[in-house]
Amino acid sequence: MPTISMFFGIIIQLFFFDDEKHHKPHIHAKYNEFKASINIETAEILEGEFPKRQLRLVQAWIEIHRDELMADWVLAVDGEAPFKIEPLK
Predict the structure, then answer these.
(1) Contact predicate 3/77, CB 8 Å
(2) How crowded is residue 31: how many other Cβ atoms within 10 Å of its Cβ?
């Protein structure tokens, strides 16, 4: 599960071959003890819990990098290493 970005204590990861459970392009976000799967297309939580403030940061980051995330999603689902994506600043 490659880490593709980190910002403000939030770790963003994509899992290889991860298209069966949610059937939607998504990322995995971690912050302290919180974990969530977040839809790339809608930026909404598919599973898990995340603090509101940090979720808003992840959602803003998704909006900025949606095209890159979709390209990385395709790579990861095919078992290829995704590219790193610029963190939120």
Answers:
(1) no
(2) 18
> Which residues lie closer than 8 Å to 84 by C-beta, 6 or more apart?
4, 5
Count other Cβ atoms within 10 Å, centred on residue 62.
22
- Over residues 29-81, the pLDDT tens digits come to 999 999 999 999 999 999 999 999 999 999 999 999 999 999 999 999 999 99
Give the torsion through C-alpha atoms of 70, 75, 19, 86, to 10 deg: -50
b/e sequence 7-23, b meaning 16+ C-beta within 10 Å: beebebbbbeebeeeee
Sheet of 45-49: strand order equals 3-7, 10-13, 26-31, 34-39, 45-49
Q: Does this model's pTM top 0.85?
A: yes
Q: Can you name the residues that pair with 73 across neighbouring β-strands?
A: none
β-bridge mates for residue 49, sequence order: 35
Q: How is residue 78 annotated by DSSP?
A: T
